[in-house]
Amino acid sequence: MNREELEALAARRRAADGERWHRVSVCCGSGCHSMGAEQVLATLKGEVGAAGLTREVQVHASGCRGLCAAGTLVEVESGPADGAERHLYVGVDPEVAVRIAREHLVDGRPLSEHHADPSDPFFARQQRIVLESAGRIDPEDLESCLAAGAYAALEKAVSEMTPAEVLAEVTASGLRGRGGAGYPTGLKWSTVAKAAGDRKYVICNGDEGDPGAFMDRSVLDGDPHRVLEGMALAGYAVGAEQGYVYVRAEYPLAVKRLKIAIKQAERLQLLGNRIFDSGFNFRVDIRIGAGAFVCGEETALMASVEGKRGSPRPRPPWPAQRGLFGQPTLINNVETLANVPAIVRRGGAWFAGIGTAKSKGTKVFALAGKVRHTGLIEVPMGTTLREIIFEVGGGIPGGRAFKAAQTGGPSGGCIPASHLDLPVDYESLAAVGSIMGSGGLIVMDETSCMVDVARYFMGFCREESCGKCIPCRAGTVQMHELLGKIAAGRGELDDLGRLEELADLLGAASLCGLGQTAPNPVLSTLRHFKDEYLAHIEERRCPAGVCGAGARAEEVRA
Amino acid sequence: MSVVTLTLDGRPVSAREGATLLEVCQESGVALPTLCHLDGLSDVGACRLCLVEVAGQRKLAAACVTQAQEGMEITTGSERLVRYRRQIVELLFAERNHVCAVCVANGHCDLQRLAASLGIDHVRYAYQHPALRLDASHPRFVADHDRCVLCTRCVRVCDEIEGAHTWDVAGRAAGCQVVTDLAAPWGESASCTGCGKCVQVCPTGALFEKEQAAGGMLSKHRDFLTYLKNAREKKEWLR
Ligand SMILES: Cc1cc2nc3c(=O)[nH]c(=O)nc-3n(C[C@H](O)[C@H](O)[C@H](O)COP(=O)(O)O)c2cc1C
Ligand code: SF4
Ligand code: SF4
Ligand code: SF4
Ligand code: SF4
Ligand code: FES
Ligand code: FES
């Protein structure tokens, strides 16, 4: 495969697509899947077959399109790929699917109902780089991915750029790690590139253990080739010939699609030996995690890939110095790597033009909780929380008042209404006691209790601690019990001091990030919502009516 | 041999390049509490008792796994570090069932010694009272999980010195336990040679020889590892 062949293949597919009357993609992401997307897909295929239009109309499954709350989503694209006419249907069930098939696909009269409005801020406010193709392409069909531009960046890199030039673009882009900590990607790459070692490895971290987060899953099962291409580019830049994608076992669809994608890419020599007839070799293997949150931590992940118990070890040595099998290793998050093809294709300067001074590009968020459009969104860095929640997210249903946004999962914190105009970037979130994290964003209204939220996340860390170091293993137990006691209306004022003292210990003394950040949900709720803790303790009352404390007070009064 | 110089609690000291901060402390006569570390075994940095402050560094460093570097300024006994150490030891007492009066290790126990040296006379955390089993299936040894602090010294000595790798850690979080083979009773372990090394290195009353009454366990031979290593590597048979 060389450039001409790649371009010819993509062009041929685009032309063939353009000749079809319609291309129909049915979202079969996990959200829509749970609402019966498979039946919608089967219905549409059946109807098209019955009408004898299988040549004229193509129906395929796609990954998540983001508006999961309004599933199942079906998009009908008509005309040539550039300048196609698009209709996006929401809330499609088999009955609506029959109407779409008969009225729109056969008779050419789009339905007037079940339409998503493309000018809705949910769409208009988003900017898609990582999710550029997810939801459009058929992830199991390499040609459809090639037609959308897959592997063009890799071809460009290996045929006209040196590894140092690829690295320079990534550095110039200002991209920072999307796995949580926001470490500059270019800097990490250059450390691995400089490290001495007979072999080097690239690892793609797809463990995604934060409760409620599904950004990486959506990228992996909606556009697996983008991640593989990002890994290959990383391998080219740092001098690695072997990559591993670490995916959690709870993502069977992502694993299946990755397997298919790797096989397809190898067949066309987009992965494997002598990629695009260059001297560059890069293979990718999949490793499946067994469902431990801590295995997302880089040193635990590497131990797990080596077949050992997934426990973190002290750093240094950093993975870049001594990582997988003792060799220099580059480990990046799924979303980080998925940004790379666009950066190489369009240039680091282009990417650096998006976002804020220190946080470049876009960020994918999984919107959850008390917000109208729960689902997956991608917005430029620096978009405010208010814009995300009230414009893109459509606001809070039921006319209730916003209370807090939780970002960063068990390592993050709760941001109160007074900070709604905060631009979402790494530094701003940290300044108010939360973190960007990997992109989970849970919206809470007046019916959420902050003590209960803190207790929930501490319970999560208590269960997920690997047990290696004492502050985390035993400290999370004590903090969780104290929070339970307060929630149950049995707390004392001294307990707040005890919580703070334990939080200090965990933050300072734990071995890895899990224990170090486990107190964050407690500290941030204590900082912004101390009155709720005091209501539980002094008045034995849960202001949101969630905890047992309220009920207990009723009993006492009765 | 290259030498680095650093400041330890305000005193200038020199150290061999590549030495850990713990070794520097030991050579300079600065007492640092440890639990998971044992001379002769690899270090895991798990107990966090040996944490020290490094000037200009936001994060604390576990001395047993941190290499001494030129110009480092180390503080080992700040008020904050002492508080953390006490908290860690108190957490250990609350975590499992430590009833010293009826423990074979009473009087010879590293955990007890740590508590005494840190002046701990009561525990502020809620006792968890887990229901744990005691494995007395081995003909000569007993594993009493009530006293285990999960330091993994047994795991490492059995793997690194004896080469049997009988012990490992199973489970996660508070449910972690050291297990023999694939959680089979110790007495049925196919890999255990019965060498007793794990019993010797265990800092508490978790592993002990049979037929010991409360407090009956003689002090364990903590220096035997150095002896073994010297014997093997340098052919020195001195005790
Ligand atoms: C407890 C814990 C869990 C983590 N889980 C993940 C994860 O699921 N996915 C991820 O990409 N990074 C996770 N990380 C961060 C990784 O250790 C690592 O920093 C990251 O994969 C680096 O990639 P990046 O530079 O692209 O962000 C976790 C860290 C900790 C401490
Ligand atoms: S902080 Fe928690 S998860 Fe991390 S090593 Fe310690 S016990 Fe394990
Ligand atoms: S192991 Fe040590 S601290 Fe625990 S009961 Fe025995 S003597 Fe006491
Ligand atoms: S007695 Fe020896 S072989 Fe058996 S578990 Fe202990 S250290 Fe391992
Ligand atoms: S049995 Fe003893 S040596 Fe083994 S982990 Fe427990 S306390 Fe440490
Ligand atoms: S799963 Fe269909 S839109 Fe997210
Ligand atoms: S002795 Fe250093 S962490 Fe245990």
UniProtKB/TrEMBL annotation, chain A:
Where is the NADH-ubiquinone oxidoreductase 51kDa subunit iron-sulphur binding domain positioned along the sequence?
451-496
Keywords assigned: 4Fe-4S, Iron, Iron-sulfur, Metal-binding
Kindly provide the name given to this protein in its UniProt entry. NADH dehydrogenase
- Keyword Iron-sulfur present in the record's keywords: the answer is yes
Give the protein family. Answer: Belongs to the complex I 51 kDa subunit family.
Instruction: State the PANTHER family in the record.
Output: NADH-QUINONE OXIDOREDUCTASE SUBUNIT F
Lineage at the top is: Bacteria, Pseudomonadati, Myxococcota, Myxococcia, Myxococcales
One Pfam family assigned to this protein is Complex1_51K
Q: Does the keyword Ribonucleoprotein apply?
A: no
Please name the source species.
Answer: Anaeromyxobacter paludicola
UniProtKB/TrEMBL annotation, chain B:
Q: Which residues form the 4Fe-4S ferredoxin-type domain?
A: 139-170, 183-212
InterPro entries attached to this UniProt entry: 2Fe-2S_ferredoxin-like_sf (IPR036010), 2Fe-2S_ferredoxin-type (IPR001041), 4Fe4S_Fe-S-bd (IPR017896), 4Fe4S_Fe_S_CS (IPR017900), NAD-red_Hydgase_HoxS_gsu (IPR016214), NADH_UbQ_OxRdtase_ferredoxin (IPR054351), NADH_UbQ_OxRdtase_Gsu_4Fe4S-bd (IPR019574), PSI_iron-sulfur_center (IPR050157)
> Which intervals hold domain 4Fe-4S His(Cys)3-ligated-type?
80-119
| Pfam families reported in the protein's UniProt record | Fer2_4, Fer4_Nqo3, NADH-G_4Fe-4S_3
Keyword terms, alphabetized: 4Fe-4S, Iron, Iron-sulfur, Metal-binding
2Fe-2S ferredoxin-type domain segment(s): 2-80
Q: Which NCBIfam families match?
A: PRK07569.1
Protein name in UniProt: Hydrogenase HoxU
